[in-house]
Amino acid sequence: QVTLAESGGGLVQAGGSLKLSCAAPGRIFSSWTMAWFRQAPGKERQFVAGIRWGSRSTYYADVVKGRFTISRDGANAVALQMNSLKSEDTAVYYCASGTQYTITDTRDVRSWGQGTQVTVSS
To answer: How far apart (Å, rounded) are the C-alpha atoms in residues 117 and 89?
Structure first.
């Protein structure tokens, strides 16, 4: 099981942008799916965005569509570009990986990162 490492979190004002990165310890295989989840205080961890590594096909939670973009960053990392940030986006963001084509449930995740805090002020 791989260990993932997130970076790029921080404090940003509403309407601003932030880019998160997630580094894997080695090459990410084409058969894997990478995803981002987030968890706000008192709430369950929820799916944000996913990418099928080989095809680069992406999918998103409705609440972030049009604002967030997930993409490959070389062979070993995945990025999450977040634009038009809202206070509701405040959460700890977690990188995740698994072998299912579509990962939207935490039960589908095989590996997690430790998380990076994103705080959006209004």
So the answer is: 10
